[in-house]
Amino acid sequence: LSCSSQLGLWQSPAMDAAVAVPAPALISAAGRGASEAVASVVPKGRGRGRGLAGQFWRQGPASGIHGSSWSSAPAVGLAAAALVCAHGRRSSRLGRGLSASSAHGHARRPRTSRCAGEAEVAEAFVSALSTAKVWEEAVEELGQAVGGGGAGFDAGFAFIGEAHITANSIAQVLEALRDRLGVRTLLGVVCGGGIGKPGDEAEGPAVEVENGLVISVGLLRQAEVTPFFLGADGEGDLALLARRSAEGTTRAILTVADPFGPVEDLLGKLDEMFPNATKAGGISAALQVGAEDRQSFTPSIAIVTEGNKARLASQGLVGLLLSDVDVHTVVCQGCKGVGPPLQITQANGQEVVGMGGRPAQEALRLVFSAVDDVTKAKMQQLPLTLGVGPVGASPNSIGDGDWLIRSFLGSSANGGLIVGGGVTEGQPMRFHLRDRESAEEDLALMLKRYRLERSFIGGGGGSPAGCFLFTCNGRGESIFGRQHVDARAGAEAFGGVAGFFANGEIGAPGLAITSSEEGSDPSKLSGTALHGFTAVYAVLLPRGGGAPRKAASPPALAPPPVESD
Fold it and tell me: For residues 42 and 296, what is the distance between their CA atoms, to the nearest angstrom?
């Protein structure tokens, strides 16, 4: 585990957001190995993580994501086993209660509106959130909020606070939710905190419950979906995915992954099979159960379909293939560039050896000397990160918000800079800082860019029906100094919002906007990435109109549920 001394937050090397090292510490660490340099900046055992707290990570042979390994992980400990983040934060003071709305207002019962043909059309997206202390009560309250049992929902996600879950009980909770909400296909993810819309406008447009007893749901009508599981070593619904890939009708993929699988490899597989589909999602909690030591792990993602028992999954991801809903993504990484963009001129794996034709540390010192005094002070106090772009792209061609942000892990023995994630010669790069000011500026910038670029590029489809929000458990009140910032920005921009605080966020850097005009195909998108300290908005734009229709029966899913570790 590693800890940002500035924000006091857990992060994981598997999320490329490991040790956040101020620039002067990087410079002074020259001549030491990476592990020694990191250890000199972040003391062993610091932080608030539960269960695996105090275990320190080291660079090692390729295992898990980006070749990081654990020096003292339990026997079940795959490289990502320490994605246990920020459990000690203050919980929202909402107390027990319920909140719900649709894209255009409250949704205590199914909402309808009149179209030109006078047919009644139900709202396409409905979100609801409950903070009831007992999950059975939360299920009932959510059902009442959305008019469940016969509301005609085709698919959705349930974001279940880990305080509600014991060993394998995600299946029981998810099955009860599906039955009460009347949704044909429901994907469940266990998380630290949930996000949803309130039912009383006086309470504000959206709420974030950062941890504790919470269940949030986001439900879709008029959505043709295919649920799937994709696991390590070729496990899962590969044949089903291959058929859908050959059909070429998949417009978007919404997915949630558990922290024990090779998430980036699986995302790469989805990019290979569905290069034109927008993708968005997040990583679940590393769900620890059992006795007081809580050293047993249980599945934290699952699928349940009408007429079937819940299918638990681990070491992989579950998701929905969407055929008649466009998804635009807005990825807010919370960073601000410092100094000029450069190009990586020498690299070795995770090590940046040269940039801008100079040794890496010399280039960093030149950037530091060239910035203003305010920025110098921030570079001395705040975590320094690196933004990278596509190989061969001009450094000046990449706009603010489009860089893929990676953390610095330390300094190598020969003076290079170790980055959380592989780098390649020829990649453009720029140093970045992340703090409250930069996070607020980046959020406002990216939402403004979305409005402008969608109007110029097209994107059609009218107003968004709502959005799913996958935001880092290192954001929220910890980085903004107040609650509900990401959720309320999404609600203001897109209407209904539902989501969770994730252990890693999934989406292509910057904006992904596809056309929803009939007969058009989305252009090939940039690669899907795994982020940290990021908010990913998955904006929902249904392509079809008319009255709700009965969806086709979901495909049979195999293999059978997995057992708890």
Answer: 28
DSSP assignment of 406-441 equals EEEEEE-TTS-EEESS---TT-EEEEEEESHHHHHH
Q: Going along 435-495, which residue ranges are E strands?
A: 466-472
Q: Would you call 146 helix, strand, or coil by DSSP?
A: helix
3-class state of residue 540 by DSSP: strand
83-133 residue pLDDT tens: 333 333 333 333 334 545 554 333 333 444 333 322 234 589 999 999 999
Q: What share of the chain is helix, strand, coil (3-state, %, to 5)?
A: 25, 30, 45
**Residue 118: CB partners within 8 Å, gap ≥ 6?**
none
Burial class (CB in 10 A: 0-12, 13-18, 19+), 74: middle
Please give the residue that has the higher pLDDT: either 405 or 112: 405
Q: What is the mean pLDDT of residues 16-27?
A: 44
Query: What is the 8-class DSSP label of residue 551?
Result: P
SS3 324: coil
Q: What is the pTM of this model?
A: 0.78
Q: Own/partner pairs for 108-111, CB < 8 Å, 24+ apart?
A: 108/144, 108/145, 108/147, 108/199, 109/147, 110/146, 110/147, 110/151, 110/152
* CA–CA separation, 96 and 89 (whole Å): 18
Range list of H helices, 155-303: 170-181, 238-247, 263-273
The residue-averaged pLDDT of 439-459 equals 90
- Say how many C-beta atoms besides its own lie within 10 A of residue 444's C-beta: 12
For residue 64, give every residue at least 6 positions away whose Cβ sits within 8 Å of its Cβ, in sequence order, or none: 14, 78, 79, 80, 262
pLDDT at 309 over 90: yes
